[in-house]
């Protein structure tokens, strides 16, 4: 009986030790299969370090990318000032009728304003007096010639009559020309003068209203301004730091918010020599043909294209680390050594690639996923 008890005790102890061993051996360590973390050795420069297991970080080679420099700016549609023609009246007076308004399209010779002018009345009076004087001198000349033929007067009397007749004719021509300059017709006496469009175009400025008074040219604004809008200016503001990227003759793509998806072509015709001291920008002017879609005052977006092509690098987008409003890549220098380099990123490219404007060159080897290496470097 005692032997049976001892055997039971021995079997219980063996079973207890066996279960303890199984639990100890059966417990799985989650870190047992993971590779040991990479060890980082910093050099004197904080941006240079060595990693004992560099194969953990796949490397990508920066590809060559040929691009044409581009610069995007905003601008405003403006009339070509060389195609602006003012409408003026040389005769002062009062506006009786207005036949055109701001924004109207007009043709050359079209009636714009009718003015009642005392200047015209005075000019017609001078013209009629000059005609009367001319008729008198003509008859006096005929009489002098007749008397001279009969020996009643001397040759000098005929010459005096001829001189008076010539001067009278000059006065008639001068008075007629004065009427023409004032806009009146010498053959149709009237105190009303018609102001017509000197050219065809669009009225872009109006400074006259019905019954308004018109003064002389020295203290009166233009009645109207007519603009030929077949060609317009796109005036853009370019910041001082970007002026080196624009040159006279460079091409530009013009985009209008009113017509999304459409593009117009133009060329830079002038880069302003004066810089705005407040916002540090210069005016850049683009000359562009207007098919009728450009309206004065429209906002546009312009993309300037440089003539010379440049060589830049392209890397996987994940290779660029965005940190504190700056962009970095990890450059592999060999022998387990990496260097963190600041770059200027460009446009996104097909295939999840990104253009690098500056910082690295084609052929450089960078870590294809910069965030993984950055996380490993964090303490």
Characterise this structure.
The protein is of the alpha+beta class and 379 residues long. Among the domains are: 41-68 and 309-377, conserved putative lor/sdh protein from methanococcus maripaludis s2 fold; 118-190, Helix hairpin bin (Helix Hairpins). Helices cover 25% and strands 38% of the residues. Strands 1, 2, 4, 19, 20, 21, 22 and 23 form an eight-stranded antiparallel beta sheet that branches. A hairpin with a 2-residue loop joins strand 20 and strand 21 (326-334). The longest helix is centred in the middle third of the chain and has 32 residues, at 118-149.
Rg (C-alpha, Å): 46 Å
In CATH's first tier, which class of the domain at 41-68 and 309-377 applies? Mainly Beta
What is the count of helical runs?
4
What global shape is seen?
rod-shaped
Largest sheet: 8 strands, antiparallel
Structural class, by secondary structure, is alpha+beta
Give the strand content: 35-45%
Tell me the number of strands: 24
Short description:
With 379 residues, the chain is α+β, with helices and mostly antiparallel strands. Helix content is 25%, strand content 38%.
Give a quick set of tags describing it:
379 residues; conserved putative lor/sdh protein from methanococcus maripaludis s2 fold; Helix Hairpins; eight-stranded antiparallel β-sheet; six-stranded antiparallel β-barrel; 4 helices; rod-shaped
Helix-strand blueprint:
Blueprint: H1 2-26, E1 40-42, E2 48-51, E3 59-61, E4 63-67, E5 70-79, E6 84-87, E7 93-98, E8 105-106, E9 111-116, H2 118-149, H3 155-182, E10 192-196, E11 201-206, E12 213-214, E13 224-227, E14 231-239, E15 251-256, E16 264-276, E17 281-289, E18 299-305, E19 310-316, E20 321-323, E21 326-334, E22 337-349, E23 353-358, E24 365-367, H4 370-377
Antiparallel strand pairs: 1-2, 2-22, 3-24, 4-19, 5-14, 5-18, 6-13, 7-9, 7-12, 8-11, 9-10, 11-13, 14-17, 15-16, 15-18, 16-17, 19-23, 20-21, 21-22, 22-23
Helix pairs in contact: 2-3
């Amino acid at each position: 009986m005692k032997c049976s008890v001892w055997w039971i005790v021995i079997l219980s102890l063996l079973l207890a030790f066996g279960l303890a061993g199984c639990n100890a051996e059966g417990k799985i360590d989650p870190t047992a299969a993971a590779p040991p973390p990479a060890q980082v050795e910093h050099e004197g420069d904080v941006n240079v370090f060595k990693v004992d297991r560099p194969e953990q970080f796949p490397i990508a080679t920066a590809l060559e990318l040929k691009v044409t420099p581009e610069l995007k700016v905003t601008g405003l549609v403006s009339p070509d000032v060389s195609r602006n023609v003012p409408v003026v009246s040389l005769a002062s007076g009062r506006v009786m009728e207005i036949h055109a308004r701001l924004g109207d399209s007009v043709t050359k010779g079209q009636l714009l304003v009718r003015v009642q002018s005392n200047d015209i009345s005075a000019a017609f009076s001078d013209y009629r007096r000059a005609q009367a004087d001319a008729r008198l001198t003509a008859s006096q000349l005929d009489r002098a010639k007749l008397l001279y033929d009969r020996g009643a007067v001397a040759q000098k009397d005929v010459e005096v009559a001829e001189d008076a007749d010539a001067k009278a004719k000059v006065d008639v021509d001068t008075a007629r020309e004065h009427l023409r300059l004032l806009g009146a017709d010498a053959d149709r006496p009237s105190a009303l003068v018609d102001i017509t469009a000197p050219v065809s175009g669009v009225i872009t400025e109006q400074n006259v209203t019905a019954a308004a008074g018109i003064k002389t040219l020295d203290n009166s604004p233009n009645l109207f301004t007519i603009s030929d809008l077949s060609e317009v200016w796109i005036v853009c503001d370019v910041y001082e730091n970007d002026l080196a990227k624009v040159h006279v003759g460079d091409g530009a793509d013009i985009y209008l918010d009113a017509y999304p998806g459409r593009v117009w072509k133009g060329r830079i015709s002038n880069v302003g020599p004066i810089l705005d001291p407040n916002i540090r920008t210069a005016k850049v002017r683009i000359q562009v043909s207007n098919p009728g879609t450009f309206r004065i005052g429209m906002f546009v977006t312009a993309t300037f294209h440089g003539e010379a092509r440049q060589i830049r690098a392209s890397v996987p987008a994940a290779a660029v680390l965005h940190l504190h409003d700056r962009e970095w890549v990890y450059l592999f220098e060999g022998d387990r050594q990496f260097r963190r380099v600041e770059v200027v990123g460009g446009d996104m490219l097909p295939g999840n690639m990104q253009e690098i404007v500056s910082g690295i060159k084609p052929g450089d080897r960078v870590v294809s996923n910069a965030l993984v290496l950055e996380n490993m470097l964090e303490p």
